[in-house]
Amino acid sequence: MKTIPMVPACQYMVELQRLTALICEYIHPEMVILFGYYAGMSFRNVSGGYEMLILVNDLRPVSVRELTAYLKEREGLEKRQEKHIDLHIYTVDFVQRHASFSYFFYIIQQEGVLLYENKLFKLKKIHYKATRSYHFAVGFSGQCLALGKALMQDAQRHFDSGIPRLAAYYLYQAVLQFLRAGNGIHYGFFSKEKEDLITLYLKIRFCSEEIADLWNGDGTSFSEWRLFGRIQSFGYKARFSYPYSVSPDLLGRCMEMAYKIEWAIEHFCQERTQFLKGFI
Fold this sequence. Notes:
It contains ten helices and four strands; from the N terminus they run αββαβααβαααααα. By secondary structure, the chain is an alpha+beta fold.
């Protein structure tokens, strides 16, 4: 990893140090590593914001959302030079088990900037296995995309047939598979922890312009971020609510949103596949 003086935007180091201190105060990590644009890396998201990998001994009941909210409360956006911050929290054990097959972890260890380290903790050197990483990422994402497309066909068929319960349920399952595909190709692994659609989306929100644009909304009462929540609700309500009803307009808009997600994720997977292939 690089040293702090090598950070290109060194005028923000005071702010980065304050944010790091708040992170350490809140979750007591083993290590905090800056990566992406502010670490001078080509591997970065499209927002250009702070990207941090946070390693902990065990996953306490603290989510990325909670930590982000805490940072906003203690270091408000109006005070920050950089408004965007992208946090990734993993246990040390998880990183050690997946590091050899994850370009994400490998390049961060190679080029990231160490902001904090528990002196009692040392991260083992990562020996990146590019071929196995490529085949897993491409295989997993391809499988998820294929399943997502099949589920979208089922959702469209039931929508056209006027069966909203099945249309909504298959729609939720399709979007879940698309977001799993994006996460798998980006990280080189997929966490088995149960996560909602918005959390899965936010993990890869700034991986591409097309994915980021899904959040923008269209100026109506059902902006895209609310549609994510509605699609998420289909996963439970379509299975367990009786009687079940959903307006054709809402369901139709959610269908359109799902097709946008499919296109954006598929395009991202194609680009990342070519990128990873170059390391074989």
